[in-house]
Every structure is written in structure tokens, then in C-alpha cells.
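Entry 12.
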Amino acid sequence: MSEPVARLLIELEDITPRIWRRVDVPTGITLATLHEVIQAVMRWEYAHLYEIRVGERVYGEPLPGMESPSRRVYKAQGVRLNKLIDRGVDRFLYAYDFGDDWRHRVTIEGVRDGDADMDYPAFVEGARRAPPEDVGGLPGFEGFLEAIGDRRHPQHAELLEWAGGAFDPEDIESSLNNGEVVDPRR
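Predicted 3D structure (C-alpha cells):
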């Protein structure tokens, strides 16, 4: 029998049209590993702090001297997804890059036995490419899309070069379509 897997729907909040991913992950992964999965499928670059908010509890990487009595951050490495599922949690918030403030709604759509022939985590499906790192949050991303979509925009060439060349907001990157979650740090 294979380890149980959870199907997760990850949606970037406040963006229209929606940017989303659906992934299957082992239920035994830690929240820190889940952070890495989200980074990989959104093609983020692990460049900023993150937190996972489950109700009133916040998980992440506690920084010495940065906690306050009113806001404690618990170690994400110390909590497994299956413990949240066992407590009846079916959705939570993943926040990344507190400057750009990317908030992702994560919904646990279901749990099933994993396929013995499948490597997990596995990308299932999704839509639209995530914003580039350090684009300036939602307003910056909207301005970026406007500039790269108009060849006459004064920042068109500069922003395309900054983004590493062509940027198609509809392409979630074909490397994700083979079912593997590719770690961009490799």
C-alpha cells in the first residue's frame, strides 16, 4: 500500500484571471517541505520569507529576536500536513515575500492512497504563469504586464530583459506539464 496523498489547490489571491496550481503531495510532508513544493510549482525562487497561517496559528521559520508576545511563529519543519488533516483543516493561507505580499489560498481537496508507480509531489494541472520575483506585488505585476504587452511602452524592452526575455502570462511553463515538481534551485 502506498502512502496517502493529498490533492491541493493552490490559488494566488487577488489576481484576475486566476493563477492556480493543483498538486498531489504525500500527507506526511512537513509544512516546510510544502513551502518548497509551492515555490517549485509557482516557479518562485526561494528568495524571501514565508509563512503558513492555519487559523490563528502561524508556521514558518522563526527568527530569533523577531517574535512578539502577540505573534508567535511555530517551526514549519515541525508540523506535518497529515496532522492538519487529522484536525479537520481543509484550507489555509500561504504567504510569500512580505514586501510583494503574495498570498495563496491552499485548499485540501481530498486524500487518497498514492499510486505506487508515481513519484510525489506531482504537478496535476494549473493556469497562468506566476509573477516574477520582486515585481512589486499586485500593482507592480499589473504594470509589468501592461509594459511587456505594449511594444511602444517606454519600459517594454527594459522589463522584458529584467524578466529574462519573453514572458507569456498564459504559459505556466511547459516543464511543469510532465507531472514532476521541478525544484528551480537545481
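Annotation: The chain has a mean pLDDT of 90. The first strand starts at residue 4 and ends at 12.
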